[in-house]
Amino acid sequence: MAELVKIYLKNPNPRAISKVVSVLKSGGLIIYPTDTVYGLGCDITNTKALEKIARIKGVKLEKANFSFICHDLSNLSDYVKQIDTSTFKILKRALPGPYTFILPGAKTLPSAFKKKKTVGIRVPDNAIALEIVKQLGNPIISTSIRDEDEILEYTTDPELILEKWDNLVDLVIDGGYGDNEASTVIDLSEGEPVIIREGKGSLEIF
What are residue 149's DSSP bridge partners? Predict the structure, then answer.
């Protein structure tokens, strides 16, 4: 049975955030709000939790395209190879925001992602998600709970999300109604921006 925890977007309660972080540290799965759709996530360093999410999504972990939710760009070099100035300027301009950037993966990636040549980096403009990652001390991996075939309320209303995911996750955060438009995905792994998916983020900043 998953627990529903209400956290307000403005000034997220530190005690509630700590509760979420302790669930993540113990290998739990959470559903949490972002600046786009609600996401399913776990601690990036916990391989068992990563494998659980891959099973839920019906993919092999080594082939899964999960995003890394980061608090900011300060520890980027732990996960991404050195990037040039123009790429960094794009990231600074767009983040925090509703974008996922595909970047070349570093050799220091957590063991589950060692074979990955690229990684998806997200810094969502959502205080709840950012506080969780900040308190945890490392990124969480994330995958959208949005399903093309589903009734939209099931992925935007936290109480309905809880109903559907009750037996699959440990905790659902009620951070208010979510969006039903996913992030814009931009591949910067080869230098020049390539639009992979047009979503909520405007393309005008490129």
Answer: none
Q: Name the token pair of 29.
A: 């799965």
pLDDT given at position 60 = 92
Q: Is the N-terminal amide bond of 193 cis, ω within 30° of 0?
A: no
Query: CA 145 to CA 38: how far, in whole Å?
Result: 6
pTM across the whole model: 0.94
CA 193 to chain centre: 21
pLDDT in tens, 175-191: 999 988 889 999 999 98
